[in-house]
Amino acid sequence: MKDFLKNRKILIGITGSIAAYKVLEIIKLLKESGAEIFPVMTEKATYFVTPLSIEISCGNKVLIDMFQEPLSHIELAKKCDLFLIVPATANLINKYACGIADDLLTTTLLAFRGPVIIAPAMNWRMYKASQVQKSIDYLKNIGVEFVGPEEGCLACGEEGIGRLVGAEKIFEAVVSALTEKDLKGQHVLVTAGPTRGYIDAIRFITNRSSGKMGYALAKIAKRRGAKVTLISGPSNIEPPEVDKFFRVETTEEMLEKVMESIDSATILLMAAAPIDFEPEKFYNTKIDKNSINSISLKLCPDILKEVSKLKKKPFTVGFSAEAGLNTERAKRKLREKSLDMIVLNDIIQKNTGMQSDTNQIIMLYKKGNKFFEEKTELLPKEEIASLILSKIKELKVGK
Ligand SMILES: Cc1cc2nc3c(=O)[nH]c(=O)nc-3n(C[C@H](O)[C@H](O)[C@H](O)COP(=O)(O)O)c2cc1C
User: Fold this and answer.
1) pLDDT tens-digit profile of 264-313?
2) Which of 36, 54, 135, 179 sits most deeply, having the most CB atoms within 10 A of its CB?
């Protein structure tokens, strides 16, 4: 269970768009993260999604009519931490920009003084209307955050910009808006996923790394205000929104990209699992299975070793996948590769390490000549990422 929104109160405004049913998925994500949701619907929204569904999924009474509970607009505006409008119609955006307050939603919105996030959804013709664009520009100028819309197939059958963005993106915008930006000013360089060593045009050696741990680190670092560069080997999962994203295949390519980006990085998180050895010879064709008996291997470049040779290095964290939580090998790596910290995870234990959504780690670091070890509980990888980043912050800049 991720508790990123524990004790947070979120106002959700739902307006009359065909995409209104999608709000149910967003409510689910917000609730799973511990938020309490207070829903307000426009009268037109009730044509598209039933108040009953909204009320049941939020677990709080849905308000529509301004006179249903007089002063609810002020009470809601006072007690909530964030106002999310999803989906937002052209009508709502224009009304909010003009300060119109003619129903409960717009009145509450005008009274609300905290962060506002708007996720628009409409046909591209409406979205591109100069009135809508002018309202969006004005609202952005006064600090309102917009998520989307995106390009794609619209409900009316046309293609274009106007689709509501995915639930995960809206969820991330909410969590990010409510997260302290304690890594602002840091440039975090993260490597993630496996690498490949090609045998021939279609066959390669790799490992089971999924990229989940590195992606979680990049996502949480971004959420906490850092500039993030993510260098990823092949992974099937959707990368998080970061400042720069590079996709690589081989360990050599990963090394090259790390070296290209390292100068401006203040923190390097080597969460990737580059293969240690690769075929000595590459056949630029498909090898006939009868023509080969064995494959000779050679060592790949050791990225951390190369980084350790640099004069000016960021705060460098290595990740060590070990069979069992024996810290001796990790300590040796910490010393030999002059790391600032090493994160050790067990590849044998169930629900930890490669491919798993959860992890249990030991963080190892040195203060003076003394080694320190901190073992975490078994937690979702995003929470593990949070703990790692907090520890780095503490070691790098002090508490
Ligand atoms: C079937 C249908 C779908 C609609 N979808 C949208 C939409 O996706 N976005 C939008 O801005 N307006 C859409 N509208 C128009 C709005 O419902 C209309 O502008 C309404 O006045 C919005 O009211 P509200 O902003 O108070 O909810 C749609 C209308 C209909 C009949």
Assistant:
1) 999 999 999 999 999 999 999 999 988 888 999 999 999 999 999 999 99
2) 54
Question: Which of 244-258, 273-287, 351-365 is predicted with the least confidence, judged by mean pLDDT?
Answer: 351-365
Task: Report whether pLDDT(399) > 60.
Answer: no
To the query of whether residue 153 is one of the catalytic residues in this protein, the response is no
Domain endpoint, select from 177, 199, 233:
177
| Residue-level pLDDT at 345 | 84
User: Both 232 and 204 in a single domain?
Assistant: yes
Residue 13: which CATH number? 3.40.50.1950
Mutate to test the pocket of ligand 1, among 91, 131, 156 (most ligand atoms within 8 A of CB): 91
Tell me the sheet residues that pair with 191. 231, 270
User: Do 157 and 191 lie in a common domain?
Assistant: no
Residue 215 lies in a domain: yes
Report how far apart the first and last C-alpha atoms of the chain are (Å, whole number).
26
Using the mean position of ligand 1's atoms as its centre, give its distance from the Cα of residue 105 in Å. Answer: 15
How confident is the model over 364-368, as a mean pLDDT? 85
Q: What is the DSSP letter of 63?
A: B
**How does DSSP classify residue 338?**
T
Is residue 91 pLDDT above 50, yes or no?
Answer: yes
Angle between helices 72-79 and 104-111 in degrees, nearest 10: 40
Around ligand 1, the residues with Cβ closer than 6 Å are 15-19, 42, 44-45, 89-92, 121-122, 126
CB 216 within 8 A of CB 239: no
Per-residue pLDDT at 70 exceeds 80: no
**Which domain range does residue 372 map to?**
187-397
Same domain, 205 and 160: no
**Tally of domains within the chain:** 2
Q: What is the DSSP letter of 283?
A: B
Same domain, 275 and 388: yes
User: Is 333 assigned to a binding site?
Assistant: yes
Do the domain assignments include residue 182?
no
Q: Which residues contact 202 (CB under 8 A, 6 or more apart)?
A: 286
CA dist 78 → 34, 73, 107, 112, 238 (Å): 20, 9, 13, 7, 37
Separation of alpha carbons 138 and 144, rounded Å: 9
- Max Cα–Cα distance, the chain, nearest Å: 83
**Within a domain: 76:** yes
